[in-house]
Structures are given as C-alpha cells and as structure tokens.
Amino acid sequence: MILMVVLSRFCVLAMIASVIFLLRDKFFSLIGSDFPFDLLPLFAVLLVVEGVMRILRDNTLEAMAMQRWLQVIISIKGGLIVAALVYLKQHQMATAQDLLLVEIMAALVSLLLATVIVSGLLRQIGEMQSEWSQPSWRQIRKVAFNNYGSGIVEYLYSPSFLLVVLSRVQTAEALAGLGFVLRLTDIIRNYLPGMMLFGVVRSRMIGAYASNQNYGELGGWAGFVFKISVLTLVPIFGIIFVYGSEVLVFAGGKQYAEFNMVFSSLCCWLAFRLHRMILGTVCNAIELTQVWVRASLVSVLVLPLMYFFLYEQLGVWFVVIALFANELIVNVLVVAGMRRRGYVWDIGWGWIAKVVVILTLACLPAYLVKGEGTPLLIAGIVLLNLLLLVGLLAFQVFDKNDRTFVNRGLGRNVFKVS
User: Are the beta carbons of 229 and 348 closer than 8 angstroms?
Assistant: First the structure.
C-alpha cells in the first residue's frame, strides 16, 4: 500500500513538473512573474524529490507514531543545509543554482533515510493482525478525492497564493512586510507546544477510534489538543498585541513596525486555523470528508466576491480578511454538518470565555508600562506573562480532565489525578 502511494505521488509530481516545464512561457506570463527559466529544471527535480520524500517522512512515519525518526530526518536535513551554506559562503559560491542543488541533495539524503527507516519498521511489524481488514478501494478513493478537493480549495486561501493575487495592485514594500509577518506567524504555528503534541497523538487518536469507535474519546482528545494549542498561543498573542511594533523592529527592522496590527490579527487567526486542523483530523476519522469538501467549496464563493468588490480598497488587509473568512465558513459549516449527523462538537466555550477575560485583564497593565527602551519592554512582557499565569491558575482553566489527558499522552503520571 505504501509503495503504491509513493509511486502515485512520484507519477503525479513528475507529470506536473513536466507540464510546467513544457508550458513555462505561458505559465509564468499568466502570473506575471519574471522567473529565471534556467533554474526551472532544478525546481522540477526538487518538486519531485521533496514531494516523494514527504510521503515517507511526514505522512508514513507520523501514521506509524514514529515522530522521533521524523525529527531525526528533519534535523539531519537541516544540518546538511546549514553545513552546505557555510561551505558555499567560505568559497563564495552562493548562487541561486548552488542553493537549489543544496536543497536537492538534502532532500535526496532525507528520502534515502526515510526509505531505510520505513522499510525497517515495516519488517519489525511483521504480519498484520488477523482482526484488521484493509479498507476497500472505494473507501480509499472517497477519502482521497474529498481530501484532495478540499486541499485544492485550501490552497486558494493559502498565504502564498493570496500574496500572488495581491501583487498585482500592491507595492513591493507592502508585499515584503506582509510576507514577513506571514512567515513569522507560520513559525509560531509550527513550534507551538500544542501542535507538537497534536503531531504525537494524532495517529493514536485515529487508531484508537478505528479500534473502539468511541467518538466521545476522540472528541475529548480533540478538545484537549485545541485547548493546549490556544493556551500556548495566548501569551504570544498578548505580547504581539501590546508590543507588536517592538517585536517586528527587533525581528526585521523598523520598516516592518507599521504591520503590528496585521501581525496581531494573524496571531488571532491562528486559533481558528488550529481548530480547523484538529477538526479535519476528526472528520477523517469518522469518515465525514464529504462534509469537509462541501464546506470548502462554499468558502470559495467568498474569494471572488472580495476580489471584485474590495480587492484594491482593502490593501494588505485583503489577505487577512480572506484568511479569516475561509476559516470561519469551513469551521462553522463542518461543525453544523457533524451535529446534524449526531456528532456533538464541544470545544468548551466556558474556558474560552475565561481566557478572553484573563487576556484582557493582563494586557491592560502591560500596556500601561509600555515605553521606550529594552528594560521597559522586558518588564512589560514579564508582567503580562505573570498576570496570565495567575489568572489561568485562579480561574482553574487547566482542569482535572486536561491533566488526565497529559498523563495518557505522555504515558506516565506527570500530574496527580484524584
């Protein structure tokens, strides 16, 4: 099965790369990009190698609950790229072609490592358990097509695509600032402790539900992961909301200070994005991908309306509003579809209300001590986080059920649960 998926990915990516290469003149004239065509063959190779490698490294190892090997491969790839960049800098060879060759070689090494590790793990598993039955091709096609369809729609709302759309009417300076804060937002999302926990428990959530069909347990895990993700996002959002300009100046320079409200809005959008990612996993587990793809298709209607009526007037806020609209529509429609089919989705509005109150009360004193200079900035950030911690403990946002899930997720009793 894994071999067939890998071969299918290879064939699809090879065809896409070939079409882009053969129709490169029409393709890049359509998007209005001055692309260096001499680099296109290298980009085509990187597309195929990286795409196939991610099937084994990301999808397969995560499904096998082998995140430690996934992290090993990612670390080795990053180390190879850093070492190659240092070498290129010392020998003054850092051209665009050299950088692409480095990426290709690192991806090839990662692909080789992933292949060896997955093969070894499959040999250790041995024969499958007799009670397990492979799903039919009809079931596989249904899930695959629904996920692929919603994935295409999701790409239309991706920051990279929206930036391409916006590039027709915005200046390079505005696009650079927006791209910078989008990249920072993506870094925050990837390294949230809640998302790291989600990567660990996702395959276990699906596997447990496939075994016992206990939706209550699945929903409990989903709600817990979302709660941890939001709680780890709250202090970051508070810092950016109060000290966004200072953070942007420190991270990129004074030219980005004016994007502080955009940055704050994108951090708030992350909460909706995290909810959607967790909700998508649950929909796949309970086989409601048709509800997911329908909600995604409905969300597509917003983009052309915004494009024709508010596109030029909104400026960089076009991207922010489009991202929010997509997440709100998909989340609301999917939850409504689940409830119509008898699947209750309770993320816990009580603790969300408490967090909003705590965050508001913590930001006000931090804003009052805001001033020029690093000492005041550090003092304000420390005060903000202390107030958040006191508020979360006083309101008992992290309750007994959460401590139980932590113990189960880590496989040991970190917290005492009476």
Answer: no
Asked whether the beta carbons of 208 and 333 are under 8 A apart, the reply is no
Lowest mean pLDDT among 30-44, 146-160, 347-361: 30-44
Distance (Å, whole) CA 72 – CA 57: 10
**Which own/partner contact pairs does 32-38 have at CB distance under 8 Å and 24+ positions apart?**
32/167, 32/168, 36/96, 38/97
Half-sphere exposure of 366 (CA within 13 A, CB side): 27
Residue 128 has pLDDT above 90, yes or no: no
Please state, as a whole number, how many other Cβ atoms lie within 10 Å of the Cβ of residue 107: 24
Q: Give tens-digit pLDDT for 164-215.
A: 777 777 777 788 888 889 888 888 887 787 777 777 777 777 777 877 888 8
Sorted by sequence, the CB contacts under 8 Å of residue 7 that are 6+ apart come out as: none
The answer to whether 255 touches 173, Cβ cutoff 8 Å, is: yes
Q: Is the pLDDT of residue 43 over 90?
A: no
Tell me how far apart the alpha carbons of residues 35 and 378 are, in angstroms, rounded to a whole number. 44
Residue 87 CA: distances (Å) to CA of 92, 100, 378: 8, 14, 37
Instruction: Give dist(CA 59, CA 56) in Å, integer.
Output: 6
**Percentage of residues in the chain having pLDDT higher than 70:** 89
Q: How would residue 109 be classed by pLDDT, with cut points 50, 70 and 90?
A: very high
Distance, in Å, from the CA atom of 110 to the CA atom of 73, rounded to the nearest integer, reads: 6
- Residue 247 to residue 188: CA distance in whole angstroms: 13
- Sign (positive or negative) of CA dihedral 162, 168, 172, 173: negative
Q: Are 224 and 402 in contact (CB under 8 A)?
A: yes
Residue with tokens 């990567």: 199
Number of neighbours of residue 416 by Cβ within 10 angstroms = 7
Please tell me the distance from the alpha carbon of residue 190 to that of residue 145, in angstroms, as a whole number.
Answer: 26
Instruction: Tell me if 228 sits within 8 A of 195, measured CB to CB.
Output: no
End-to-end Cα separation, the chain, in angstroms: 45
Q: Is the pLDDT of residue 315 over 90?
A: no
d(CA 283, CA 2): 22
pLDDT at 338: 92
- C-alpha 304/C-alpha 97 separation (Å) is 37
Please state the φ and ψ torsions of residue 167, each to the nearest 5 degrees.
-65, -15
Distance CA 292, CA 278 (A): 12
Dist. CA 102–CA 360, nearest whole Å: 47
